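INFO batch 0412 | record 1 of 1 | parsing
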Amino acid sequence: MANTFQESLPDGSTVVPVILGSDKTMLSTLSGNMSAWPVYFRIGNLLKLNGLILIGLLPRCPNSPKIHTIKIAYQESMATMLRPLEELMKSGIKVLCADGRTCHIYPWIASFLAGYPEQCNITGVKYGWYPHCEIDPDDILSFYCRPR
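INFO prediction complete | emitting tokens
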């Protein structure tokens, strides 16, 4: 899909891969049982040690609500945080590059790195259950390699 997206851009534009990440963390030992989900943003083609930005901190829902409520809150919070990125994915943005030229870039979410509980929250899969692939393992390559 990224190749098709790249081909649909105006000449001279480029895709900039974005990597998002989240993993529940304890806030401190002094705060009792308080935890939150930090959400990180990184440009995919930068060195691993550079460019990691904390874009949000999602608090844990209090009073142990139903798991469905936690998932909805997580998904809505992520959608709110990523809304500005969604607009840039459609329109792109002109930036000054290191060589002094102005480039028209289009961010693209390339990956969302998260632990299993966070993946369950964002996808809606029930914790402890695993999605079942209904494609025969012998046919998996033909599924991914066929023209769409």
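INFO post-check: The chain has a mean pLDDT of 77.
INFO record closed
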